Amino acid sequence: MSVENDTRAPWRERLRVIIFEADTPAGKAFDVGLLIAIVLSVSLVMIESVAPLRERHGFEIDVAEWAFTILFTIEYGLRLISVRRASRYAWSFFGVVDFLAIVPTYLSALVPGAESLLVIRGLRLLRIFRVFKLGRFLGEAGVLSRALMSSRHKITVFLGTVLILVTILGAAMYLIEGEENGFTSIPQSVYWAIVTMTTVGYGDLVPQTLAGKALASVVMVLGYSVIAVPTGIVTAEIVETAVGGRVSTRSCPECTSEGHEADARFCKDCGAPMA
Amino acid sequence: MSVENDTRAPWRERLRVIIFEADTPAGKAFDVGLLIAIVLSVSLVMIESVAPLRERHGFEIDVAEWAFTILFTIEYGLRLISVRRASRYAWSFFGVVDFLAIVPTYLSALVPGAESLLVIRGLRLLRIFRVFKLGRFLGEAGVLSRALMSSRHKITVFLGTVLILVTILGAAMYLIEGEENGFTSIPQSVYWAIVTMTTVGYGDLVPQTLAGKALASVVMVLGYSVIAVPTGIVTAEIVETAVGGRVSTRSCPECTSEGHEADARFCKDCGAPMA
Amino acid sequence: MSVENDTRAPWRERLRVIIFEADTPAGKAFDVGLLIAIVLSVSLVMIESVAPLRERHGFEIDVAEWAFTILFTIEYGLRLISVRRASRYAWSFFGVVDFLAIVPTYLSALVPGAESLLVIRGLRLLRIFRVFKLGRFLGEAGVLSRALMSSRHKITVFLGTVLILVTILGAAMYLIEGEENGFTSIPQSVYWAIVTMTTVGYGDLVPQTLAGKALASVVMVLGYSVIAVPTGIVTAEIVETAVGGRVSTRSCPECTSEGHEADARFCKDCGAPMA
Amino acid sequence: MSVENDTRAPWRERLRVIIFEADTPAGKAFDVGLLIAIVLSVSLVMIESVAPLRERHGFEIDVAEWAFTILFTIEYGLRLISVRRASRYAWSFFGVVDFLAIVPTYLSALVPGAESLLVIRGLRLLRIFRVFKLGRFLGEAGVLSRALMSSRHKITVFLGTVLILVTILGAAMYLIEGEENGFTSIPQSVYWAIVTMTTVGYGDLVPQTLAGKALASVVMVLGYSVIAVPTGIVTAEIVETAVGGRVSTRSCPECTSEGHEADARFCKDCGAPMA
């Protein structure tokens, strides 16, 4: 990143490198510390929701919660100060998440009935993704997200087909079983079809008639077979990405193009021998 | 598509292109509008089946339902008029679906006890597949359906084997657990075997004896392992389709070697230009 | 199959070809007829186990059952007569299955308390595998069973590891939850671990304590991830078999060896140019 | 293993080869015997936990348990004696497991309330992994564990993402369903999210409201699709390991081309013998 025509004070750029980058020792230490603070604060949110613990240790939880909120507020302020364009950061995805991580605590203190907003603090967990910049995980996450991104159209087609299937099968089940067997409406039956087709199978709603059980068997076998499709899509994508990675290790000495197969003897772009 | 010896009026051909094709802006707009109408009308069918909503908003639902029915009737008429051979369309898969999408509403108004036919309107959802012609989804759906088609014999063999297995295992379970533990007949036990082997596991019927639990464990581990087979089939097919598409279509005009990548400009074996 | 030094009458060899082979029109017709008879007779066994149907149509079921038994007895006799060595057939896998398909009906008529043996007739279903010789399914089944056979050691290692895991995790759960929460013994807990790890999840036995739920979560995530392993094994095997299939289409003009890659220019076994 | 500057008596080295190696007939027989003893002793631990069996056959179980404990104690002593550095073995993974396999029985005899420690004997099962050295399973286990090891970073990223997802989705479910529908705390809701996302679906905790069911459907479809990712990772890894092992190890001595199959005798590019 070029630092020319950067009118900010030099300490702000140094602060930005520590907070936003992970390459320097200070930046890495900051990320690790932030990771620990996030995990601890989310654990606190989870503990707070357990009624017996909240009643017994309410005061300690409140103190710790305010400590984390103040810590994250300072961090949020430092991010706003150190970044080049504060508004661009504030409206970015992580900027909004950082804001939502601190604002519910203040709101619950000011507005009387805002306690239910406290759950929003669970979004703090999303901030962990920022720390995935750390070390070697970046590359691995890159392979996975590239494979998912390049197969997103196939997966959309697949999920669309599944949604249409569960709606039609759910409606058929509503017709077969009827309201007396718990299939009280089509949305309810579609919910049953999703529970069955994804092989979750809660068992809170099960077919009672013979025809219903026969249709349920079809849905199950369908769901059991159809899961092969997204798996096949993603696997093919990962294999291809991996093979693509194996392909691209050589570059042409003449035109420096890449992407040659391992056994190519001539550059496929300019025809020069690969030597 | 050649338009010669087409005796229809030109406006009918223009109408056909709008309704049946998706390449022109008008055709695309028609498809998007149709997609929205289908989703809304199916949502309406689902809402209508929820008893409290039906009682409170019965009149509004009826009005909206008739509006959609008239809309789809007009669309059906336009399709019949614009297409070259009306009878061939009327008896095609989508022609029948289009017909089934409108006829239940008329029947329920004419025949008193035909309300249960209204669920057939859920088939409207099938019409969404027609809109999959839209944009890039066609290609993706093509890869998936080609992979499924070319592996259909393997999947038939697999499903046949699974069906034979669940029948034999279900009959064995009927012998082991018996009627006193809920396994009242072989079809019921086969249903249990399907529920277990597909890893759905409702829990409405579970083994009670030690021998039954041992056999159930075998069924579960079998189902858990055997799911690898359809996944393997479909994945291998998709990988092959993807690799085959990327590589083997071109041959060198000089040395006739094969296996060139799609973007190769020179033969990787003799260095001649690929032309 | 060489027919020399075959001392049987020629009609017995013709009979054998009809009954055991599927290449001739008569053999194919015999196989299709047998397939239908098997499916019908197994359906009959299933129907017979449904108490209301058995009470109402007991006589018709008995008549049909005896008809199928006599039919299969005649078929068994013809197989014994037509085959070259009757004893080798009688003790082969399908010979035993053919015998078990008819003997329970006779036994139930002779021995008073032998009704429970009737379920053994469900093994008739196994005879369907014999008909898989029909047409193109043979090749597809071959690919699948080859892939399964060549990955059987890997799958044994995998299943062994899973069995050791569920035993240790089940024992740990027995220690954590104890008898008061339904985990009454280690075998019972191991059963729970299998139900959970294979993602079946009946729900007849669920952890109640916090520690139990935490361990259960570990078992679930483990089972959810570990299923990737058999899938990966089988997929890799099928891909390899398929690629191997693509490889083997060329044979050396000099030494007729096979298994050459598509872009090989010289025979990899004798060094002659592949032309 | 070089035996020079080995100051131990020769019989100790011979003992070590029998106990720790599997190449000699005596070593193989020892391993098979040990495998049987482990399986029998673990079966005994399982049987002991079944209350009716323990009450009826308590004495026989105790006798057999002490027999196995003394057998394993002797084996442990022999291992300590025969190995070159006893302390290194004692603190190795299998050394600790071997120790934990015998110590609970002695403790339960000495300390009155130490019966619950007896479950630790279940760890004896881990010793089976040592016997996997036997024969051809070693290679197969090697392929699997190499594939798992080289994909461990990808799987860590995947599991981390899944954990973050279930926490956020669980917290959302706590907000939607609330304590009156059984979602009494965020940890409880996260447990539900894990049960649902891994498609286990016990059914002990199910959404009751419409919004809850809608969110549950999202979780299910997510879990159903997302399982494709670890499968894809492991499959790609196994395919790569298999293909890499089969092809890329040899190069032609004449033209130095690569990518020859393991059984090629002549270079597929220039026809020179591969020697």
Helix and strand topology:
The structure is a homotetramer of 275-residue chains.
Chain A: H1 10-20, H2 25-48, H3 51-56, H4 58-82, H5 86-90, H6 93-110, H7 128-131, H8 137-150, H9 152-177, H10 186-197, H11 210-226, H12 228-247
Helix pairs in contact in A: 1-2, 1-4, 2-4, 4-6, 8-12, 9-10, 9-11
Short note summarizing the structure:
By secondary structure, chain A is mainly alpha-helical. Chain A has helices at residues 10-20, 25-48, 51-56, 58-82, 86-90, 93-110, 128-131, 137-150, 152-177, 186-197, 210-226, 228-247. The first copy, chain A, has 2 domains: 3-131, Four Helix Bundle (Hemerythrin (Met), subunit A) (Up-down Bundle); 149-241, Helix Hairpins.
Major beta-sheet overview of chain A: none
Kindly name the structural category of chain A: mainly alpha
Low-confidence stretches of chain A: 244-249
How many DSSP-defined strands of chain A? 0
Which descriptors apply to this entry?
homotetramer; 275 residues; mainly alpha; Four Helix Bundle (Hemerythrin (Met), subunit A); 2 domains; 12 helices; 0% strand
